[in-house]
């Protein structure tokens, strides 16, 4: 039996992109949250490599820790490659590009493909936003530097750029695809400015309460881990599946074609998250479902996150 191939550090390409080859480990397969967490690590690696600051040890001018928090996260898959379809041992080629969004924010895009040994193609931002080609898995991370304003509290986090952060040398994202535009509606409680015209509402106002588990959902600095939001969404989605009379096999066979999350707040380790789920089905294809999941802190009513995902049910 051959030994596993270790993960490679990102290598620079001529256009400023970074490329790495990864072997899918058990720690990134199965739940979407595991995949999202691993790609988030690649984002921190890319920013550390290109922006003059170690994202893992960044501090502000006062010497206080500042964190590269996730504000907007989007995953776009294809039938051939999607986040729940990655298996142990899959060899993946990852090309990443970091884009300039000012002194307090940064945008990183990743194109993931099955590694065939072919030379990596440059990652052109305009082509990236054209959507995934067959076999592509595209991920977009918009991050903001933040710091705490209250000791031992995850409320009222503030923006704080770290010492040494460089961004002027990076290319700007295409204006029409600014993540700020994508999150404008989410801040009002929904990604959808109006009901989707080609779909009908199959479920409206399904709710469930998720108690945050301090031993599972918080990261190493006590913040509600960004990938835990994906886990809470999937927790609610499974309960919706059961509400619709579907089984676990139906849930495991779903294909996530598009999922976006806008992070609008954080929660303490003893919080309860009130989750609301709405589902629309495509009129001419009942397996094509659009699901919106809204997360609020039940105690304060504050908006924590909005997620919109397009799922093909039972299509794996």
From TrEMBL:
Q: Which InterPro entries match?
A: LnmK-like_bifun_acyl/decarbox, LnmK_N_HDF
**LnmK N-terminal domain spans which residues?**
20-188
| Protein name as catalogued | LnmK N-terminal domain-containing protein
């Amino acid at each position: 039996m051959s030994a596993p191939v270790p993960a490679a550090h990102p290598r620079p390409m001529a256009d400023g992109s970074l490329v790495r080859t990864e072997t899918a480990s058990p720690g990134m397969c199965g739940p979407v949250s595991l995949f999202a967490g691993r790609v988030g690590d690649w984002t921190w690696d890319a920013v550390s490599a290109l922006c003059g600051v170690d994202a893992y040890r960044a501090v502000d001018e006062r010497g206080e820790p500042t964190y590269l928090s996730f504000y907007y996260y989007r995953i776009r898959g294809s039938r051939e490659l999607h986040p729940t379809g990655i298996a142990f041992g899959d060899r993946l080629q990852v090309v990443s590009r970091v884009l300039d969004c000012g002194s307090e924010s940064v945008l990183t895009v990743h194109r993931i493909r099955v590694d065939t040994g072919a030379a990596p193609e440059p990652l052109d931002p305009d082509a990236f936003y054209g959507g995934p080609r067959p076999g592509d898995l595209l991920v977009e991370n918009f991050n903001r530097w933040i710091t705490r304003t209250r000791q031992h509290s995850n409320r009222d986090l503030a923006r704080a750029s770290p010492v040494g952060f460089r961004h002027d040398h990076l290319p700007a994202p295409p204006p029409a695809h600014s993540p700020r535009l994508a999150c404008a509606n989410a801040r009002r409680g929904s990604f959808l400015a109006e009901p989707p015209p080609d779909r009908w509402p199959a479920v409206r106002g399904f709710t469930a309460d998720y108690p945050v588990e301090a031993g599972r959902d918080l990261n190493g600095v006590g913040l509600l881990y960004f990938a835990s939001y994906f886990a809470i969404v999937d927790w609610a989605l499974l309960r919706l599946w059961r509400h619709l009379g579907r089984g676990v096999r139906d849930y495991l066979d779903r294909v996530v074609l598009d999922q976006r999350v806008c992070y609008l707040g954080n929660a303490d380790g003893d919080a309860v998250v009130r989750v609301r789920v709405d589902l629309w089905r495509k009129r001419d294809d009942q397996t094509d479902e659009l699901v919106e999941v809204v997360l609020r802190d039940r105690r304060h009513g504050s908006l924590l996150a909005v997620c919109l995902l397009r799922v093909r049910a039972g299509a794996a």
